[in-house]
Amino acid sequence: MASLVANGCLNAGLGLLFIALVANHAAAWSLGRLSTRLLSHPHRLRPASLATADTYDIRYFTQLVDHFAYHPHPSTFQQRYLISTEHCSEPNSPIFMYCGNEGKIEWFAQNTGFLWELASTFGALVLFPEHRYYGESMPFGSQEAAYKDADSLAYLTSEQALADFVSLLTDLKKNMSAEACPVVLFGGSYGGMLAAWMRLKYPHIAIGAIASSAPILQFEDLVPTDTFYRIVSEDFKGESSDCFDVIQQSWDVLDTVGQSEEGLQSLTNKFLLCSQLNNTSELENWMYAAYEYLAMVNYPYAANFTMPLPAFPVREVCNAINAGYNNTDILSRIFAGMSVYYNYTGSATCFDLGENIDGIDGWDWQACTEMVMPMSSNGSNSMFPPYTFDLQQYEAYCLEQYGVKPMPTWITQEFGGHSIKKVLENFGSNIVFSNGLLDPWSGGGVLQNISSTLVAVITEQGAHHLDLRSSTEDDPQWLIEQRQVEIAHIKSWLSQYQDQHHGYAASS
């Protein structure tokens, strides 16, 4: 591997520098029955205990609040980043940078073990910059000030975040005398979207990107709006048609029971809620979240990513629901399934439907401005009640919350999406789009090779950015092979870069 890093870029002797969330999906901000599924989110996960990562340092970089306007006295903020030179045994090494998602950056560093493994293999510097307005990287001094109103939130955009990454990288490489260092980007979910977009928008900054579970096509009409919930439903139906049927029937039962105060009290007791249920929407959203998360993290081994869960958790939920097949009480069977997700360890004595999710306010704003991902549910292929995406209702919510109107076409204008194969084939290169087809976000991902350097790596049994997680003894062979393909592409990018860099240096 020494040949790959011989012309990298770290100043030896600099010493050890160093160095998602709670983030996950489809938030259901309630505006009434099932019109609640308005604002979607590719990566809002509940906090889980952190795995042990390599040693890293926490540092801060002074960023402009606004990269795209000239101000006589520009506002700045401190962007937090994690950096490690632990694996940089060579004086010159590549930089592997993870594009920070919507949450505390430590969470992503701790849950992206594959990057650390690659850093050891390639002798790379590791960089995890935190996304502005998340974690501790707050413009205007505090989260309260940053989230005060639409004026203070106006700088929370993907474009500004990418500019942050570019500024940080440029300054870091300059100060470390590492201007010629090749940068490889990584990202999962929203971070994967940022990694792909950064490679496309700033090809002079990074030589390639691993974009895992990146739904860059989940905009406008690029994919059918019912794709996400169709895939969630297929995951459950693939385990058990009876399980699918019970879940599908449960929504009407829930609404019927919840029409009276006595019914709401009954639901409060049946689902062991910590506080009195005020309406069925709260409970529906809680159930929606569980099914969505389960489909996303349907990993082939036990994991603690969103919650402590067994291997193939969708199967275990269906087993719990089906275990009561002689029980005519559908909601009791549903509760048994919910308990697998929310209480697999058995430690919970009651369930809090109003649990705070880190990053939720920030993503709510992003979804109300540029990150408009239309979603619907089709009664013919979904275990969820049918509903259609209503842009007018979406706009009404955003106007009420923030006084802003969403821009549903902006992402495709800024980053592309329409005729993606033709466009990227001519103008893009060096991106691996990896997706597991059990992941409902794969429906908005790139699932076909576009060119020899724009590659789709697909696994039928893969789930949400499973490839970026740490390797384990329980990894199936297909996952091992998926990572080997990604490693091969990174080797190719670095080799090509060094060949070109050598040629340029020799000619000059």
UniProtKB/TrEMBL annotation:
GO-annotated molecular function: dipeptidyl-peptidase activity; serine-type exopeptidase activity
GO term, biological process aspect, one: proteolysis
Keywords: Glycoprotein, Hydrolase, Protease, Signal
UniProt entry tagged with the keyword Mitochondrion: no
Pfam families per UniProt: Peptidase_S28
Record carries keyword Glycoprotein: yes
Ranges annotated as spanning the membrane: none
Alphabetized InterPro entries for the sequence: AB_hydrolase_fold, Peptidase_S28, Ser_carbopepase_S28_SKS
SUPFAM superfamilies attached to this UniProt entry: alpha/beta-Hydrolases (SSF53474)
Family to which this protein belongs: Belongs to the peptidase S28 family.
Protein name: Lysosomal Pro-X carboxypeptidase
Entries under Gene3D superfamilies matching the protein: alpha/beta hydrolase (3.40.50.1820), Serine carboxypeptidase S28, SKS domain (1.20.120.980)
